[in-house]
TrEMBL record:
InterPro entries: DYNC2I1, WD40_repeat_dom_sf. The gene is Wdr60. GO terms for cellular component: cilium; cytoplasmic dynein complex. GO terms for molecular function: dynein heavy chain binding; dynein light chain binding. This is WDR60 protein. Transmembrane segments: none annotated. SUPFAM superfamilies: WD40 repeat-like (SSF50978). GO terms for biological process: intraciliary transport.
Length: 112
């Protein structure tokens, strides 16, 4: 609820990494790991901002932030083909009106 993210290992109750206030205090609505690239995850906050984290590039801050200004985004889902090396990765955004937008993710965050 405060925008903090914690990365845990299953064998420990303590986080390996913790990022406080990662969304400038906005509650996190959804967080999903990229299905084609294990070090990348996506965060959606309550203000309809999407943050892209690539832990191999920067483990302190997100590598990109994209605001979705047109309408409130209520959830997201990632889609792609893990068995192919093409690096196809998309993100489906469900908006408050019921509309769903699908966006392609840049190859640098999608390729295995």
């Amino acid at each position: 609820s405060d925008g903090s993210i914690r990365l845990h290992q299953m064998t420990s109750e303590y986080p390996l990494l913790q990022w406080n206030d990662s969304t400038n205090g906005q509650p996190i609505i959804a967080l999903q790991w990229a299905i084609t690239r294990p070090a990348v995850f996506f965060v959606l906050d309550a203000s309809s901002n999407i943050y892209i984290w690539d832990l191999l590039e920067n483990d302190l801050l997100p590598v990109a932030k994209q605001a979705i200004p047109s309408e409130k985004v209520v959830t997201m889902a990632l889609l792609g083909e893990t068995e192919k090396s093409s690096g196809f990765l998309g993100i489906a955004l469900a908006k408050e009106s019921g509309q769903i937008d699908i966006h392609y993710i840049k190859k640098k965050w999608a390729v295995p």
